[in-house]
Amino acid sequence: MVPRCGYIRRAIAKEDPSAAVELDISALPGGADAFEKAARYCYGANFEITALNAAALRCAAAFLDMQHPADLARRVDEFLAQAALRALPSAVTVLRSCEALLPAAEELGLVRRAADAVALRICNEALFPTRTPPGWWTTELAALSPASFQKVATALRCRRADPKVLANAASAYAELALAEVLADPRDREDQRALVESVVDVLPSAADAPIPAALLCRLLHAAVTTEASAKTCRDLELRVAAVLEQATAGDLLGVALDGAGERVRNTDTVRRVIAAFVERHAAASTESGRSRRRASLSGGRAAEVDPGAMEKVARTVDEVAAELATEESLAISKFVGVAGAVPKEARAKHDGVYRAVDIYLKTHPALDEMEREKVCSVMDPLKLSYQARLHASQNRRLPLQAVLSALYYDQLKLRSAGAGGEDDDRWDDTQTTAAGKARAQARADAALARENEALRSELARMRAYVSGTQQPSRGSGSSPSAKKKASFLGSVSRTLSRLNPFKGGWAKQDTASIADSSRDAMAHVVKPKRRRSSIS
């Protein structure tokens, strides 16, 4: 081997020619198997170069400094160029074999060559599939370590691959890694390391958007395995970037524990929703600025999806309704999730009202203040007619929420009446938006005054019931009884103003009907009796 290996030749030259020479080749890449094949090559014996041992033989040839014109390194390079790196499975095998040969394989450029070959074959398969199903190549990536996959992702970006290709590759690799994490829940340390490494190699959302469902499952795995705060925060921001694509089941999976039975991670869900709201607000502000710049320059501004926030609000309402069934869920946790979306983001509050009602039904022991805190996440004035009708009869709701729902109906009736008077007084050319706004403002002001009066009456009622009510004694009517009657009468008169079907309307209607009936009978002319004669 001395004529073919510069490493051995230099080692022998340093020693006494008559003495035995011992060489330390423990650092030889590829170990004993690679040295055996190198020795067989030097002695002219036959052996096979495969995709599995090609990288080890190339590193061993470089370590032994085999510079013969027909040396082993040249033979291996020819094999890589003509066979091993021309097919995706064999290129993945070469790249995987380099993982045990670092840093020698990195210094020789084998890792870069293999990763570039894998990226090239992936691009070709995406454009011109050679097998079925078309995405078969994604399973080939499962054998790679996270560091090797990152090399492939970098090579795909350098080749300007379609973002969908990069997203499919990253999603498939993350799916396979996630399956490995869930396969053995006992090995927590290895699971944590695998999740953190997979998250580190995921491409950015701008390069390749990962599906929201997969990101939610990765976030759940990161929280369950107690991954680092950096990894969890990275996943939370990734989920927030595509939250409008997530379903209620995806977010609910994040909130559940490892067994998927109990609610444990509501804070994670709240942070994801808050990050989305903050991101959407910043995008809306930037969109407004870009529109102003575009109006000055004549260009086109980037638009923000107006339905994204409303879609996320509906998803959050569904999640809150599911979380509300957990008996151990604290009020602060429920309010944190349900109230993470601004109230103005919901056109209707029927969904959040359903979640509130479920929570109150699951927790019947709440007092009035606690129920008001639960109801603070919804606006009773934004309930639909059916929801307001249900809320007005819902004994689980606090009194303030019921009155607010009734107020809205009164406001609608008054606004409709004001609108009818305006229609009778003005013609179509005079009924403008400003006129309607003024009529609405007058109705709101009147309703606010009635609201204030009712609040004072309710406060007096509560004070009277709590401390001043005493049982009457004797058979005669006492001054306290008269005071109670007058007080309840004032409350009744105040509440009657909220009911459109009381206050004299019914009496007037029936009276008018009776008057019209009497008038009609008065104008009836009885027919004359005629005598029939037979002539």
UniProtKB/TrEMBL annotation:
<dbReference type="InterPro" id="IPR043454">
    <property type="entry name" value="NPH3/RPT2-like"/>
</dbReference>
<feature type="region of interest" description="Disordered">
    <location>
        <begin position="464"/>
        <end position="535"/>
    </location>
</feature>
<feature type="domain" description="NPH3">
    <location>
        <begin position="135"/>
        <end position="412"/>
    </location>
</feature>
<feature type="compositionally biased region" description="Low complexity">
    <location>
        <begin position="466"/>
        <end position="480"/>
    </location>
</feature>
<protein>
    <recommendedName>
        <fullName>NPH3 domain-containing protein</fullName>
    </recommendedName>
</protein>
<comment type="similarity">
    <text>Belongs to the NPH3 family.</text>
</comment>
<dbReference type="Pfam" id="PF03000">
    <property type="entry name" value="NPH3"/>
</dbReference>
<feature type="compositionally biased region" description="Basic residues">
    <location>
        <begin position="525"/>
        <end position="535"/>
    </location>
</feature>
<keyword id="KW-0833">Ubl conjugation pathway</keyword>
<dbReference type="InterPro" id="IPR027356">
    <property type="entry name" value="NPH3_dom"/>
</dbReference>
<feature type="region of interest" description="Disordered">
    <location>
        <begin position="416"/>
        <end position="438"/>
    </location>
</feature>
